[in-house]
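If your schedule permits, I should be very grateful for your opinion on a structural question. Please examine both parts with care and let me know of anything in them that strikes you as inconsistent. The record follows directly beneath this note:
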Amino acid sequence: MTLPQASRYATIVLAIIAFFVALNFGRSVFAPLTLAIVVGIVLSPIASGINRLGVPRALGALIGLMIILSVLGGLLILLEPMISMALQQAPRLWFELSDIVTSLQRGMAELDSVSEELARAFNGEDNGESSEESFSLPRLTDALLLAPAVASQMMIFVGALFFFLLSRTDIYEWAGRMSAAADPAPAPLPVGYTGPLHLRLMRAEKRVSRYFLTITVINTVFGITVTLFFMLFGIPMALMWGVVALLLNFIPYLGPLILAATLLLSGIVMFEGAERFLPITVYVALNIIEGQFVTPTLVGQHLAVNPLAVFLSLVFWLWLWGPLGGFVAIPLLVWMVALAEAEPAPTAPAPADLA
């Protein structure tokens, strides 16, 4: 490798590192902006269908924005009583779990002195406080301080989503023209030619929309199934667990793992004896059926993504942007894979074909 080549590669690596550092540093702006673009790609079939009816693009973009805001508002209305109930039960749940963990830690303290130190730190024995008293809910002042940041990110999300739905076809055409102009062509490009990148972007958009629609239907049916089975077995707050199962299923691997751990702890508190493992057993069984049989059958090979790529993308975006990164990780991966796999159009079509 020559010195100019090494310098060029080093510059590319440094540019990539600087790019991701900028994404992390400006997460309060880039995270809602990326989420808005992902949601806009998912909603693109709706916007295109509205535009084909002769509705102005601005009105179509506004309708798409109202749809996603209505969905978010409906989720908040549905989850609010569940969250309130969970917060009311949190001190009792924390106290009972602390007693269980204390018993386990005291049993292990005889084998390992480190476990004894962890037990005292976990139960607040150093300052003489009980487990129940050590639990505290978020303060109102914390919520008030967080409100401006949440409002600004929401404003970025709403604005970016509206303008992306409004001008996404123009953006694709512009990107296609820039790509076509940068590539060496055997002949001058015809007027109005947008280049192969335009078609790649459109195909990738359709791939992401189809994938997300399929996954949304699967997750919705899965959440309903979890709710019905929890009701059948008499597990409290079945509707809440079904909604949470629906939402966390959008985050592969990590989402079901978090819910399974939560159900294990909740089952220990809510039931006695072997019934303590009933919630996690029912959920894991349904999740295995969904993950091993339902999703592969409905998604199909043409929408499938390498599991290792899914896991690495999820880990990376969670590390970069936290929970929000977990929601955009898979759609972004599907978009990039579809963009790379789409077949390019001819470099310079004949003028007669454009007429």
